[in-house]
């Protein structure tokens, strides 16, 4: 267990070319995540101000927020870099995995992370769809080689390969996406009621990829109680060290991504056509567009598709593909026989990424707030347009340089699949945008959503505040949050809300970070001191004027009596400091020193001729040696008597012993 924070090293002055970059990098931590997907691997470099420094500079509500994770460079797009193909293609040539695939990714990361910070920069490689299709032995071989090469080639922080380099399932990927989305939208910034999560509102997350579809959201209190066995407990830590928890439902539909769903759709379409037909009419293909498609080259013959571009018929053809008719082992199920709690659209507003965005924005430019009426109208117009005319528009750049003929040919199906899965699948209402009701969440979240335009039941996005929504951001936020010092015994990470012994809690970092027993939290100490001062002021005002005067009088008397008593002998000073009992006041020394006692002291003729004040001082201070000579025994008796008189009779003068 690491008890103290790892302070970021100083940045070399020659690493950054500009003064702004050097100032930005001071006190920063870095993290590297490689998203190993089916078609390629993408490295992303993130950074955040060291938690101890951020907490020291934070004021007000900033302390209640999670660490501010952002891109690994002040400006620019070099913080991410992608390599093709995916690592799952290296099963038969593991010896080439490092130099051909991993090396360019790691080299790119090393260009952005300052050299002194490399050893404290965590490296993660998390594999998704492509690696999930491999056998466990193949997965272990690729992951082991990845870890070996990364440790040999770099000095990135890689203490536990099982934690840092692994294949994650669809639920984990969806949960990381939910974390990233809510972080960017400020869903974790509400400091109200830290101990309770029942009323805290967040955004739901939808992801539609090529092979699977995912959903992650925090159900309302009623649904959360009904389905608590299906929820994931997510724990983050804010800069002040407090732990905050959310109950999240996450699930995935394998085979319901846009590409896999289209394969199943064409197989179904081919089976419904008579064998003597030379082609198959496809209502989900643009009008008069043709495509030869083979869903399974090994088992199914190629099918010639001719588009009719009929959106209404297309949606009807997609109903069996959605699988609402499949058995539901655990009610309720939305589609595909997969259990999902009911969605309260007054509480849960959703944001969709990936194909939700591409199918809405690439051609139709309708990315953002979703309006069923406008979207379906645009899709129908595009699909019914004659395909040769669409090809001319593509060649002229009407839809931009990113829209190819192949992408446009598949767009009718993908757009229709988005409509089908949103409304018949998840049950989103088909309400025009002008009729949408206002968001029914907390006031702060409403205002934040309105400012960013996220106050509708569903919308598609690609990035927020110029930061792409990626599940890798969610992973890095969890790690940065786990680095915050805390006296809480609960670690940062996620696990089953009801621990049934089947799944363990996934730690976000290497270890639980906790305050050492001798750690001093100066923020809490200052608060305690302020409370004590205020309490003392109140008591002082309540005790009354008489008691205050009595206390002040005794305090002054005690302050004056803190003096050292000195007794002279012939050879010099003998000093005694009273260690027990109360010290005599100045009145004890001078006020009770009687003149009648002075007359008993033999005084020389020379001293009589001096003024009275000088003679008194001379006698008291011992400057008249001729008249104040004492034997050693007399001095010893004088000291003993002095202590007895002081402890028992504060009113007696210690100088009375001199009269003998």
From TrEMBL:
Sites where the protein binds ATP: 210-214
Protein name: Golgi apyrase
Active site: 173 (proton acceptor)
InterPro entries on file: GDA1_CD39_NTPase
UniProt organism field: Neolecta irregularis (strain DAH-3)
GO MF annotation list: ATP binding; GDP phosphatase activity; ribonucleoside triphosphate phosphatase activity; UDP phosphatase activity
Residues spanning the membrane: 525-543
Biased composition (Polar residues): 624-640
GO cellular component, one term: Golgi membrane
Keyword rRNA-binding: no
Keyword entries, A-Z: ATP-binding, Hydrolase, Membrane, Nucleotide-binding, Transmembrane, Transmembrane helix
GO terms for biological process, alphabetical: CTP metabolic process; UDP catabolic process
Keyword Hydrolase applies: yes
CDD domains cross-referenced by the UniProt entry: ASKHA_NBD_YND1-like (cd24039)
Family indicated by similarity: Belongs to the GDA1/CD39 NTPase family.
N-terminal signal peptide: none
Spans annotated as Disordered: 624-660
């Amino acid at each position: 267990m690491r008890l103290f924070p790892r302070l970021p090293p100083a940045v070399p002055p020659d690493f950054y070319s500009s003064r702004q970059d050097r100032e930005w990098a001071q006190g920063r931590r870095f993290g590297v995540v490689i998203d190993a997907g089916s078609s390629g691997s993408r490295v992303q470099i993130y950074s955040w101000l060291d938690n101890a420094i951020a907490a020291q500079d934070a004021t007000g509500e900033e302390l209640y927020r999670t660490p501010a994770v952002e891109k690994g460079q002040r400006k620019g797009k070099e913080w991410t870099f992608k390599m093709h193909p995916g690592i799952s293609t290296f099963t038969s040539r593991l010896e080439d995995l490092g130099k051909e695939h991993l090396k360019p990714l790691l080299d790119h990361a090393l260009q952005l992370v300052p050299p002194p910070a490399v050893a404290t920069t965590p490296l993660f490689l998390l594999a998704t769809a492509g690696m999930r299709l491999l056998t466990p032995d193949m997965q272990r071989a690729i992951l082991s080689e990845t870890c070996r090469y990364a440790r040999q080639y770099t000095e990135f922080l890689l203490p536990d390969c099982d934690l840092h380099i692994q294949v994650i399932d669809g639920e984990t990927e969806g949960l990381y996406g939910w974390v990233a989305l809510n972080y960017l939208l400020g869903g974790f910034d509400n400091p109200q009621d830290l101990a309770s999560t029942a009323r805290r509102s967040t955004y739901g997350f939808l992801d539609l990829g090529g092979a699977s579809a995912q959903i992650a959201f925090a159900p309302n209190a009623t649904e959360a109680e009904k389905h608590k066995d299906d929820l994931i407990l997510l724990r983050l830590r804010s800069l002040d060290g407090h732990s905050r928890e959310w109950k999240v439902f996450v699930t995935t539909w394998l085979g319901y991504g846009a590409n896999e769903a289209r394969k199943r759709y064409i197989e179904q379409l081919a089976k419904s056509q008579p064998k003597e037909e030379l082609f198959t009419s496809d209502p989900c293909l643009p009008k008069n567009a043709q495509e030869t498609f083979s869903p399974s080259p090994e088992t199914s013959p190629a099918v010639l598709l001719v588009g009719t571009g009929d959106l209404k018929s297309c949606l009807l053809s997609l109903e069996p593909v959605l699988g609402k008719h499949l058995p539901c082992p655990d009610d309720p199920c939305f589609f595909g026989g997969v259990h999902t709690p009911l969605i309260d659209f007054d509480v849960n507003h959703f944001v969709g990424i990936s194909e939700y965005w591409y199918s809405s924005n690439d051609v139709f430019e309708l990315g953002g707030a979703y309006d069923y009426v406008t979207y379906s109208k645009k899709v129908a117009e595009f699909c019914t347009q004659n395909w040769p005319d669409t090809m001319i528009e593509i060649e002229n750049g009407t839809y931009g340089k990113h829209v190819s003929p192949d992408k446009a040919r598949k767009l009718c199906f993908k757009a229709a699949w988005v409509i089908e899965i949103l409304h018949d699948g998840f049950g989103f209402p088909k309400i025009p945008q002008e009729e949408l009701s206002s968001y029914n969440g907390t006031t702060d979240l409403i205002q934040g959503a309105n400012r960013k335009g996220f106050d509708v039941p569903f919308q598609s996005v690609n990035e927020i505040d110029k930061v792409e929504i990626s599940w890798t951001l969610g992973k890095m936020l969890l790690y940065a949050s786990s680095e915050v010092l805390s006296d809480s015994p609960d670690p940062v990470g996620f696990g089953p809300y009801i621990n049934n012994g089947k799944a363990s809690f996934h730690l976000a970092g290497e270890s639980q970070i906790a305050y050492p027993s001798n750690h001093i939290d100066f923020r809490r100490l200052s608060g305690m001191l302020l409370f004590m001062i205020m309490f003392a002021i109140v008591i002082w005002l309540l005790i009354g004027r008489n008691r205050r005067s009595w206390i002040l009088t005794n305090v002054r008397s005690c302050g004056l009596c803190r003096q050292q008593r000195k007794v002279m002998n012939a050879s010099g000073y003998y000093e005694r400091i009273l260690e027990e009992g109360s010290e005599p006041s100045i009145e004890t020394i001078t006020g009770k020193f009687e003149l009648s006692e002075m007359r008993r002291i033999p005084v020389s003729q020379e001293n009589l001729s001096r003024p009275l004040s000088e003679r008194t001082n001379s006698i008291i201070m011992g400057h008249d040696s001729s008249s104040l000579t004492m034997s050693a025994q007399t001095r010893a008796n004088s000291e003993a008597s002095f202590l007895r008189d002081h402890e028992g009779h504060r009113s007696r003068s210690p100088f009375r012993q001199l009269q003998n």
